[in-house]
Amino acid sequence: MITINPYFNFKGNTEAAFNHYRSVFGGEFATLQRYKDTPEAGSTPAAEQNLIMHIALPIGNGIILMGTDLLDSRGDKVIVGTNLQLSISTESVEETDKIFTALAKGGKETMPLSDTFWGAYFGMCTDRFGVQWMVNYDKNVK
After folding, report:
1. How confident is the model at residue 54 (pLDDT cuts 50, 70, 90)?
2. Cα 9 from Cα 95, distance rounded (Å)
3. Phi and psi for 134 in degrees, rounded to 5?
4. Is 100 strand, coil or helix?
5. What does pTM read for this prediction?
6. What is the pLDDT of residue 123?
7. Which residues pair with 66 in a beta bridge?
8. Which of 132, 57, 130 is closest to 100 using CA atoms?
9. Does position 80 have pLDDT exceeding 90, yes or no?
């Protein structure tokens, strides 16, 4: 089976972002590796040793959020764009409210939660880390 897992590139705040996502979705990290724990640790500057090389957070139904800190020492650049949104399908209005509120905190609501013409309770936000989210509860699915 083919699966798609969102992979985030951050500039030094991967740990904060993923701790936030864990507080929203629950669960435990399946993987958390720091640059100091890799074979490349000897060539990684001291200031970057504790940054996240790879992190994985299962959030349900086989979906795993993954991420890394890009390194200045390698000349890595984070390009924040508008070409990625993550769509979360929820199972109730209450769950939708909870997740949307937590993701939008410190960020920006781009479309407040509301009932839609397609029969869903839906909203969009950009979280405080610049990630765009769509949160959708399809009222027609029982």
Report:
1. very high
2. 27
3. -120, 130
4. helix
5. 0.79
6. 95
7. 7, 56
8. 132
9. no
- The SS3 assignment for 134 reads strand
* Type of residue found at 107: G
- Rg for the chain (alpha carbons), in Å? 17
What pLDDT does 125 receive?
96
The Cα 93–Cα 101 span in angstroms is: 12
In 3D space, the residue among 73, 61, 65 whose CA is nearest the CA of residue 9 turns out to be 65
Q: Tokens 């969009």 identify what position?
A: 124
Evaluate whether 136 touches 90 at the Cβ level (below 8 Å). Answer: yes
Phi then psi for 2, rounded to 5 degrees? -85, 135
When the pLDDT of each residue in the chain is averaged and rounded to a whole number, the result is: 90
Reduced to 3 states (helix: H, G, I; strand: E, B; else coil), residue 86 is strand
pLDDT in tens, 83-114: 578 989 899 999 999 999 999 999 999 999 99
- CA 116: distance to chain centroid? 25
CA distance 48 to 41: 9
Contact 132, 85 (CB under 8 A): yes
